Amino acid sequence: MTEKITKVDIITSPNRLEDLMDELDKIGVTGMTVSNVSGCGLQRGHKEYYRGTPVEIKLLAKVKVEIVICEIPVDKLVETVKKVLYTGNIGDGKIFVYDVVNVIRISDGTEGIDALR
Amino acid sequence: MEGLNGADVGFVIFAASLIMFMIPGLALFYGGMVKSKNVLSSTLHSYMALAVISLQWILVGYSLAFGPDWNGLIGGLNWAFLKDVGMSVNPDYAATIPHLLFVVFQMMFAVITAAVISGAFAERMRFPAFLLFLVLWSTFVYDPVAHWIWGAGGWLKQLGVLDFAGGFVVEISSGIAGLVAAIVIGKRRRTRPDPHHIPMAILGGGILWFGWFGFNAGSALAANGIAVNAFLTTNTAAAAGAISFVTMEWIINKKPTALGTVSGAIAGLVSITGGAGYVTPGSSLIIGLVGGLLSFLAISRLKPKFGYDDALDAFGCHGVAGIWGALATAVFASIKVNPAGADGLLYGNVELFRNHLIAIGAIVVYTAVMTFVILKAISLVTTLRTKKEEETEGLDISLHGESAYNALN
C-alpha cells in the first residue's frame, strides 16, 4: 500500500453544510458521512428565550462531516474547506486530519485504496 | 330576542370555532413543510394572523367589509369599534343569529386568509415587515374585496356573483397575493423543498379538512339543508382532490405520496369553497377532481417553469384551485340546490359565468396591484427580507431567539 489514505473530519455550523457540500462536490469528493452533533469550544453558547426568560444555551448544534480520501490531495481539500467556511468569527469550526490504516469494502472484500474507488 | 333561532346560533358558534381551529391546522401544515430551523417562524405567521387580525377586525375591518355601503366599493366606518353592532339580528346578513355572531364568524375568515398568504414567503420574510403586511393587506385588500362580494350593496354582489364560503374572497385573493409577494420578496437562497416533518404537515392538513366543515357548512349561517349539502359537497371535493392529485403523482412519478394526497385534499377543499352551497354532491366530485389535478400541474409544472418561489404553494393551491372553483360554480350551480343561488352554464345560464369572469378579473387585478403597492410601501419603512446570514442561520434563532428542537434534551 504505497498511497496514503487520509481521513478528514470537519466540525462546523449546520447552516454551512449545504455550501460546503456544493464545494466538495466541485473538487470531486464523492463520499462522506454527516452527523448532527452538539458541542462547545471557544465559542460561547447563545441566548434563547423561553416564554420571555433568557436561557443560556451552552452546547450548540453542529455538524460533523467525515471524509476519507486518497486521490484528492489533502491540502486541496483543506484549502477548499477553509475557503468555504471562513468568516473570521469564532464558531467557523475545526478541521481534523488523520492517517487511515486500512479501508475495507464489505460487499466484495476490496481493501486499501481500491475500496475507495 | 326578535327573530333569533337557538339552533342556528349554536350551529354558527360551533362553525366559527371550527374555523378558528384551522389556524393551528395551518401552522402545522406549513410548519411541517419548512426546514427545522424555520418551523417556529412559519408557525408564528399563522398565530400572529389570529392575534392581529382579530383586533383589526373589531377596530375597523368588519366595518370596512360589511359596514354601510359606499358606492359598492367599501363599507363605511360607521361600525368601527363595532359601534351599533349588537345582539339583535341584521337581516342583510343573517336573519336568525345575533349580528355580533356574524362578526365573529366573518372574523375567522379574515384571519385565515391573511395566514394562508404566509406560505408563499415562508423562510425569508422579516418579522416587522410581516406584521405590517398583515395589517395593511387585510385592511386594503381583504376588507374591500369581502365588501364587493358579500357586503350589502357590494358591486359584485349586485352583479349576482355567487361565493358561498370565500372562493373569491379567501382563496383567489390569498393565492394571488401569495404569488405577488413571492416574486416581490424574491427567491430563497435554496428553493429545493426540504420539509422537516411530514407527519406534522399531514396532521395540519387533516385539521384543515376538519375545520373546512365550519367554513363551508357554517356559511349557510343556519342549521338547515343547505348547510348539510355544503358539508357533503365539501367532503366529496376534498376526497376527489386527494385522489386526483395522488393519481397524477402515481402516473408521472411512479410513487403515490402521503403529502401529495393531503395537498390534493386541500386543493379539492379550495375548489369547492365558492360553490359548496350551490352545487350538488355529484358536481362537487368533478370540481374536486379537477381542482386536485390543476393544483398538481401548477405545483409540479408551472412553478418550476416560471421559477417563482411560492415556497409552500399558496398560489399553486389556493390561487389555482380557487380560480377553477369560481369558474366551476358558474358551471354547476343550480337553483334546485339553493333557491337563493342561480343556475350555471350546465343549466343553460350564461350570465352567471360571464359575471364570474368579471369577478375573477377584477379581484386578480386589484389584489395583484394592491399587494405589490403595499409591499413596496413597507419596503420604504423597513426591509422586507432577511439578510443572507439570518436566512442561513434560520429564522427561528435569528429573528425569534427560539429553537424548535433540541436533540440532546
Give a written overview of the molecule.
The complex is a heterodimer of chains A (117) and B (409). Chain A has 117 residues and is α+β, with helices and mostly antiparallel strands. Chain A has a single domain, classed as Alpha-Beta Plaits, CATH 3.30.70. Chain A has two helices and six strands, in the order E-H-E-E-E-E-H-E. Chain A has helices at 17-26, 74-85; strands at residues 5-12, 33-39, 46-50, 53-57, 60-69, 94-100. In chain A, the strands form two sheets. A four-stranded antiparallel sheet of chain A has the order 2-5-1-6, covered by helices on one side. Chain A starts with a strand and ends in a 17-residue tail after the last strand. The mean pLDDT of chain A is 88. Chain B has a single domain, classed as Ammonium transporter fold, CATH 1.10.3430. Chain B has 15 helices and four strands. In chain B, the strands form two sheets. Chain B has a two-stranded antiparallel sheet with strand order 1-2. In chain B, strands 3-4 form a two-stranded antiparallel ribbon. Chain B starts with 5 loop residues before the first helix and ends in a 9-residue tail after the last helix. At the A-B interface, strand 3 of A face loops of B.
